[in-house]
Specification:
- Helix content is about 25%, strand content about 30%.
- It is of the alpha/beta class.
- Helix 4 packs parallel to helix 5 and helix 7 runs parallel beside helix 8.
- It is globular, with a radius of gyration of 20 Å.
- The two termini are about 25 Å apart.
Length: about 375
């Protein structure tokens, strides 16, 4: 499924609210690695299912029996400035960020305070997103100093990847997710056994690369063929080409339904669903209507000794209490704890916290 947030994340031909076509133009020295692209088993089965399976009936949900998991809320997960990424300043509906070598200005609706840094610091930006400042708007990048290519080299905790200027203001990574990545890597290392991770709505693959580096076997699913191509490119950039990652272009819900039928199971599931979107076959997704069934599906494809399920929600008008209650109900009878709150980025200039998203995670 593709989201309003997702549509800012890629620029393939318009399938949802995602937006206009944009051709990939890797910078010199960072061209995508050419490789054969045979269809994996899951995609062949997905195509077969389109012809052999009737359209999925709505999943029938019933409240789970058993004690609710313990709870921890609110939990605020914070990303502080570091050498790879920093929120330098924010205010007046904008944010000034440092991504590796580049200083970038983008719209930020939640920054309703005033800027702390002087104008001259903002004017040193290498790239400025202009055009439609609506949360889902299409725009373009302006380069005040010198024209920049589509991609540039970046790092996260020693993992190399490519930043990207997309037509929906995003740059190929959501740095606030680093808190989840670190938590997941810790769970994988502490398990001291083989761990299988499912990353739904996986985008350009940083979470999948972190999990694979930590020792997990990863299945990465995204409805965008272009996003999967970027993720594969990041795998090569990171030097993790030998790690066991399956890159799958598919609708997240349909893939999870097939995994349930096949008996495939996972120890950790990450899902970052859209507020609204369409899958590659025109499947319609509405968060408040469809999230309960997908959450239930995620429970159904866990191993007998699971580690965690992590839900992140962007661009919705809701409290984290709503998804917290959903997660506790869904994981009733399984023990563990549900932790819910917000992901924030701590600003370097004045120390203010910029909230980016809601989250809820069940941890065994």
């Amino acid at each position: 499924m593709k989201s309003f947030r997702d549509k800012r994340r890629d620029s393939r031909p318009h399938q949802s609210a995602k937006g206009a076509t944009e051709q990939s133009r890797p910078r010199s020295g960072h061209a995508a690695v050419a490789r054969p692209d045979p269809k994996p088993r899951e995609q062949r089965e997905a195509q077969a299912d389109e012809h052999s399976q009737p359209k999925s009936a709505p999943r029938i949900l019933a409240r789970r029996e058993g004690a609710l998991p313990a709870e921890h809320l609110p939990l605020i997960l914070e990303v502080a400035p570091n050498a790879d990424y920093a929120l330098l300043d924010s205010g007046a509906g904008q944010k000034l960020e440092q991504y590796g070598p580049y200083r970038i200005v983008r719209p930020e609706g939640q920054a309703i305070w005033q800027k702390a840094l002087p104008t001259k610091d903002w004017e040193r930006a290498d790239a400025i997103f202009t055009g439609d400042t609506d949360e889902e708007g299409i725009g373009r990048w302006r380069f005040p100093k010198v024209p920049l290519g589509e991609t540039w080299p970046m790092k996260h905790d020693g993992i190399d990847y490519l930043g990207r200027f997309t037509s929906f203001r995003h740059v190929g990574v959501f740095p606030e997710q680093a808190s989840h990545w670190d938590h997941m890597a810790g769970l994988i290392a502490a398990a001291k056994r083989p761990v299988k991770v499912l990353n739904l709505f996986g985008y350009t693959g940083l979470a999948s690369l972190v999990a694979a580096r930590a020792g997990a076997e990863v299945t990465h699913v995204d409805a965008s063929k272009k996003a999967i191509g970027w993720a594969r490119e990041n795998q090569e950039m990171a030097g993790l080409g030998g790690k066991p990652i399956r890159w799958i272009v598919d609708d997240a819900v349909k893939f999870a339904e097939r995994e349930e039928r096949r008996g495939s199971r996972y120890d950790i599931i990450l899902f970052d669903p859209p507020a609204y979107g369409r899958g590659p076959k025109g499947e319609v997704w509405q968060l408040f209507e469809d999230l309960p069934a997908l959450t239930d599906l995620c429970r159904s494809i866990l191993t007998p000794k699971p580690l965690a399920v992590v839900l992140t929600a962007y661009s919705i008008r809701a409290s984290f209490f709503a998804i917290h209650a959903l997660m506790r109900d869904t994981f009733a009878g399984m023990g563990g704890k549900v932790e819910s709150g917000e992901l924030i980025i701590r600003e370097k200039s004045a120390g203010r916290a910029l909230s980016t998203s809601l989250f809820s995670r069940w941890v065994a």
